[in-house]
Design brief:
- With 168 residues, this protein is an alpha/beta fold.
- Helices cover 40% and strands 11% of the residues.
- The strands form two sheets. A four-stranded parallel β-sheet has the order 5-4-3-6, sandwiched between helices. The protein has a two-stranded parallel ribbon with strand order 1-2.
Length: 168
Amino acid sequence: MHQPLPFAGYRFSVKDRKMWIYQNIIGRMIKRSCKRADEIIVQTQWIKNAIVRQCKVPECKISVRPPKIDAASLKTFCATEKNCYFYPASASVYKNHAVIVDACIRLKQVGFSEYKIMFTLQGNENEHIRKLYEKCQTQQLNIEWVGSLPRARVYELYGTHGLIFPSY
């Protein structure tokens, strides 16, 4: 089980119909499935804790198995460019790109522009992202829309850029 939305503290409103359905309707099915499962495998301790708490599943039925990452290909962090940040995420609303865009607008309002942020989006993935892209262009924000990147490049950027991760 690796879908955290039913267990997230943030609750989507009915206005965001797709996410609300996924969190509440499909989420109930996921929770019911967790209750009936003989064994549950999750990637993180917080999801295990949430399942135990919300579904009343005994801890012994849940194993935490983090994804295997080739750590040899990760470099030690060494910021080669000052104030450069990276957000590798899909175009889903709950990934919260809007929070970053709004923060950049606030930074601009107070006169701070010495930063660069990279999104792994092109700006045309869906209506929500298209609107954010247009806002960035209109506001002339320091957000670079680089599109999908190969895993090796993502690992390189982990080593040279600060990671931003506002996802619910």
